[in-house]
Specification:
The protein is built from 9 helices and 2 strands; from the N terminus they run ααββααααααα. With about 200 residues, it is mostly helical. The protein has a domain of about 110 residues: Cytochrome c-like domain (Cytochrome Bc1 Complex, Chain D, domain 2). A hairpin with a 2-residue loop joins strand 1 and strand 2. The mean pLDDT is about 85.
């Protein structure tokens, strides 16, 4: 081995080590710069503003885009502060299908698929909700169900952040359909279809 090759090897190692050290310094500086920013964490005080708060109050008269909820019935289930017994939009078959789907996902674990209050959660020891088929709830205004889904009731917590307002109405409509399914009479069937039911029943 020549003296030249023996001398250049340590130099190469030193050069590589220096380049690696520079790369690591550059990478770490970039990461620190990204993580340590001139910002405030929630509720931190600030000397910059006169009120001493870093978080700023909402500008008066402004609302979040898409959150201007002036339709009292649609978003509260009430009319002039009174629980309503009407829907804020026409309920179609598609709405009922959507309500059935949302009910089965969100409500049936406690209320079961018929609304009798014997869902799988109840079968495992959780408090049983009242049946939708008792007289009190059969006579309750439809806005009552919207309000309970929105705000919770008793052991039931709010589903406001899980179910959209319109889907809450669709679930309420499906609850009405469940109630009718258990308490319908022949008079509830359209006159032109009653004979078909009678024939099948004979």
């Amino acid at each position: 081995m020549s003296l030249h090759s023996t001398a250049t090897k340590p130099r190469r190692v030193a050069s590589l080590a220096g380049a690696l050290a520079l790369a690591m310094m550059a990478a770490s500086a970039c990461r620190v710069d990204m993580h340590v920013q001139p910002r405030y964490d929630p509720y931190w005080p600030s000397d910059f503003f006169a009120d001493g708060r870093s978080e700023r109050p909402q500008v008066p008269g402004t609302v979040v885009h898409g959150e201007l909820r002036t339709d009292e019935l649609r978003y509260t289930g009430r009319i002039n502060g009174v629980v309503a017994n009407e829907f804020p939009f026409p309920i179609t078959r598609a709405d009922l299908e959507r309500g059935r789907q949302r009910f089965n996902i969100n409500c049936s674990p406690c209320h079961d698929y018929t609304g009798s209050g014997h869902g799988v959660i109840v079968q495992r020891g959780f408090q049983s909700p009242p049946s939708y088929h008792i007289e009190r709830l059969r006579n309750a205004p439809v806005g009552h169900f919207f309000d309970v889904i929105t705000n919770g009731y008793g052991a039931m917590y709010s589903y406001a952040n899980r179910v959209t307002p319109d889907d809450r109405w669709r679930i309420a409509a499906y609850i009405r359909a469940l109630q009718l399914s258990q308490h319908a009479t022949l008079n509830d069937v359209p006159a032109d279809q009653r004979s078909q039911l009678t024939e099948k029943g004979q």
